[in-house]
Description:
The chain is α+β, with helices and mostly antiparallel strands and 426 residues long. It has helices at 12-21, 94-112, 119-129, 134-149, 156-171, 274-277, 291-314, 316-326, 330-346, 353-358, 360-382, 387-417; strands spanning 27-36, 41-51, 59-60, 63-71, 77-82, 173-180, 187-197, 213-217, 227-232, 237-245, 258-259, 264-268, 282-289. The longest helix is centred in the last third of the chain and has 31 residues, at 387-417.
Amino acid sequence: MTQTGASAGASDASRLFDLLTGQPEWIHRRVDRTDLESDGETTRRISFDLTVSDDLAIRRSGGVVTPLTLMTKVPLRRLDTVGPDGRPLPVFGRQDNGELVAAMLIEAFERLLVGGVTAVVREAIGAAVMANDPDRMDLAVARVRAAVEAAPTSDPDQVAAVLALTSDLVSSFLFAVLLPLDYVDRRVVIKVAVTEEVTGRFSDWALSQEGRSMDLVLSLADAAASAHFEFRAPVGLRVASVTLLDEHDEPLPVPGPHIDGGSTAHLTGLHELAPANGSGVRARVQLEPVADGIVRQTCFATVFVAVLLLVGAARAEVVRAALEANRGGAVAAAALAVPALFLSVQARTPEHAWVARALFLPRLLNITTALLLYAVAIVLVTVPADARALTAILWGSFVAQALIAAVATRLLRVVSAAPPTVQHTT
Length: 426
């Protein structure tokens, strides 16, 4: 997108346009870390190394409006902004923000539309920028697009670029802070931390790869000259893969090097995708359990139960004699109920679907083993201790549990086989 080249006499709208479309010139480096919480929230910690030049300074209330990133329009929790002096920075207000963004878009279209911006375009832009209802944002953008495309233009490509910027600024909130005037023309670091609620786009089947993945929108439309993205998994899980997707769900190549990690994935060079893809790029993060957590416990527990049932089947006569002496097998039933209770606790459902999907298979194996043990315990209590029937029950239970243990062992081997990777298409 062609920049306006704001001068000392440029309007605030022109300065904002240059800040948004020429960020690699003034944001030197950006580090964006996303911590995926087990309760379905994400905590983003972003640091910006930047310089706001005097000719781009938008002065308001004793400070300079500094647009940092795009954020969701849902209410934000635990928002914290820290300036270069370690003190909190005020956030530019929603009303003032919307008015400045609307003025910027109107001025941009004013230069591109033959005859200037009509009242219809002006009204559509104002309503779209202030829209908060997600269901109406697409409709608001469509109205702006229809109004703009109905007017003749001197440069269709530039109009399309400004419309793309409009879509970004309607669907997301332009997050800006007021930087003290003392820091104009000085290189500074600003840090932002915010907690958001993110819902994954899960498939219906939890055992599929998509069923253990979630999509996170990357704010590449406001990328910097150098950008670094990190994704941290919840406790007990790890990042199995990260795949970049465009707005049409097509995979994108990772332009820069990546760093593999168990609990954290690192991506660099993503700012190179910004001009062509804007903020439509998503990172599909696939999670899986760590081997040292519930997977290892499940493996050991299911194998132990299989050995227990094998011993019982091999010594069926001893078991039958013990049942007859105990008059109903209450002791044997209790002995089986203890590990069954432990496995039932292991199979409890966590708070959020992210963790539930990633731990679905080990929890399923635990609950299956627990149900098998409960069933055997009930049989020992209620069924007469016929030697042939008891032997068949114990051997059948062992075979079923051996299959469960084999799946659990295979799961442990798969999870432990290789370190996770960051997938990319070349």
